[in-house]
Amino acid sequence: MKRREFLIQSSLAAITAIASHQLPSQSTPIYKQYKSYKSWKSSNIFLQGINAPVFEEVEINNLKTSGKVPEELQGMYLRNGPNPMFKPSSYNYPLEGDGMLHSINFNRGKVSYKNRWIQTRGLTYEMFEGQEITELKFKNYANTNIIGYGNKLLALYEIGLPYAIDNNLETVGEWDFNGQLEQSMTAHPKLDPKTGELHFYRYSFFNSPYLHYYIADKNGNIIRKTPINVSEPVMFHDMVITDNYAIFFHCPLVFNLQQAKEENQPFVWQPQAGTTVILVDRHNNDKKPIYLQTDAFWVWHFMNGFEENGKVIIDFVHYPKINMESHWQAILNNKSNLQRMTIDLKTQQIISESLDDHYVDFPTINNDKIGQAYSFGYAPYIDTELLSKRKIPNYFPSLIQYDLAKKTHKIHQFKPGCYGGEAAFIPSSKGESELDGYVVTFVYNENTNTSDFVIIDPRNFASEPIATVHLPVRVPGGFHGNWIPNM
Ligand SMILES: [Fe+2]
Predict the structure, then answer these.
(1) Res. 25 pLDDT band, cuts 50 70 90
(2) Which numeric CATH code is attached to 3-485?
(3) Peptide bond into 476 cis (omega under 30)
(4) What are the structural domain ranges in the chain?
(5) Which alpha helices (DSSP H) does 112-152 contain, by range?
(6) Among 16, 41, 138, 282, which residue's Cβ finds the most Cβ atoms within 10 Å?
(7) CA–centroid distance, residue 143 to ligand 1 (Å)
(8) How far is the CA of 457 from the centre of ligand 1 (A)?
(9) What distance in angstroms lies between residue 31's CA and the mean position of ligand 1's atoms?
């Protein structure tokens, strides 16, 4: 065939394909290895199996998908988690481990994956040395959460400043709100969907007052900073907002400097002190906080809070105590469940009730409902039988969808050998109801040692995912993630 004829025929074939809406067959993923680091193994249960770190940074375009990826998904799901680059001499989960970001990017029908370590200052020093530096044990790992705020991506770790990240997942550096934030910021700020304000706090171990509450406007300016008096320096991992209050649970996990130096364990559990619920007025800086005393318990994560008929309602994952041992039996013996605390603002009486008895954590909701009355929440399920068998935590065989109005739940069971993590809710742009959107999570498949990214229909929660993105690599179990829509 002559060159001219070939060109004409090729053009005609292309026009015919477009005219009859034929799409080119899905090509194989394009795998680009960016950097690879020396691998190692550990006997620590939080560095084994699903928790084991990965040692390659990659970018994979043209990912294979099954089902139908919703066209309206345009943006990036980002998840953070601990992934120590160098073998640690000791490991305190969940406080340690260099943060690694994993992203799934949806761009006009193409889906790609990328992972990058967050280049914190501490990690940079260690990379220069080529090994762990034990003096950096309490460094800012930036490993807990990643949020989109204003025009920034912020990787968060509660004992350090946020790290700004660019859209290519490259680390920009520490972000201190233009000099307005000192020392640290919680990894669980709350973005008020009504006002666009970011509500957050920082806690300190050394200087009283040990807690400071902040509000930043949608442009990144801190517009309020309120010191909160608390009796002792404790760890605060999460907070709740309602229309009128920012709420903190002062659980008795007390910082102890001596123990930090001697045993690498900076906290002591002191249940005799009980838990104090602190309600801070969101609108009046001069109003004194309300302090309410209750029995000791531990909370990592809140599901949500809201106000109704003179009452404040707070849903959270309740643990009888904190578990500080890196042993599977200790995790088995400290079973959590979803609970509701109702505070009567007039009588200041607290009523607690159990909402469900499944062992869960990492609760999430449709973030459009933060601080508002809501009905639906999501959490991965910790199967105690599986934990006893595996002796390694963080294998979540299913996700639970709670209907808190009807007090029922549905279970999305992953396929045999497949385990999910924290879910994120992506609201539909066309949506009006709390269920209009998509529930997504990474799922590790131990049969293939690779991971998938699943998209579940919240209205048919127990059914098969509506779409699955197949990765040729493994995404280790991690902490928290968020959907960052294209702007
Ligand atoms: Fe957390």
Answers:
(1) very low
(2) 2.130.10.10
(3) no
(4) 3-485
(5) 121-129
(6) 282
(7) 10
(8) 25
(9) 31
**Can you name the residues that pair with 459 across neighbouring β-strands?**
none
Token digits of residue 3: 């060159």
pLDDT at residue 117 above 70? yes
Tens digit of pLDDT for each residue in 241-250?
Answer: 999 999 999 9
**Mean pLDDT over residues 25-34, rounded?**
73
Mean pLDDT of the chain: 93
Residue 210's closest CA among 235, 189, 186, 187?
Answer: 235
Please work out, in degrees rounded to the nearest 5, the angle formed at the alpha carbon of residue 45 by the alpha carbons of 43 and 50. Answer: 110
Write down the pLDDT at residue 165.
98
Query: Which residue, 457, 426, 476, 427, is CA-closest to 115?
Result: 476
**Over residues 346-374, mean pLDDT:** 97
CA of 186 to the centre of ligand 1 (A): 9
User: What average pLDDT does this structure show over 209-220?
Assistant: 96
Amino acid residing at 207? N
Q: What is the pLDDT of residues 379-400, one digit of tens each?
A: 999 999 999 999 999 999 999 9
Nearest to 453 by CA among 80, 24, 103, 40: 103
- Global pTM reads 0.92
Spatial CA neighbour of 330 closest among 254, 251, 405, 391 = 391
Q: Would you tell me how many other CB atoms lie within 10 Å of the CB of residue 86?
A: 18
Helix (H) or strand (E) holding 15: helix 3-19
CA 301 – ligand 1 centroid, Å: 6
Record the tokens describing residue 178, joined without a space.
Answer: 């233009």
300 CA to middle of ligand 1, Å?
A: 6
Q: Judge whether 170 and 116 are in contact, CB under 8 Å.
A: yes
Q: Show the CA angle centred on residue 79, arms to residues 221 and 460, nearest 5°.
A: 110
Distance 204 CA to ligand 1 centre (A): 18
Q: How far is the CA of 382 from the centre of ligand 1 (A)?
A: 16
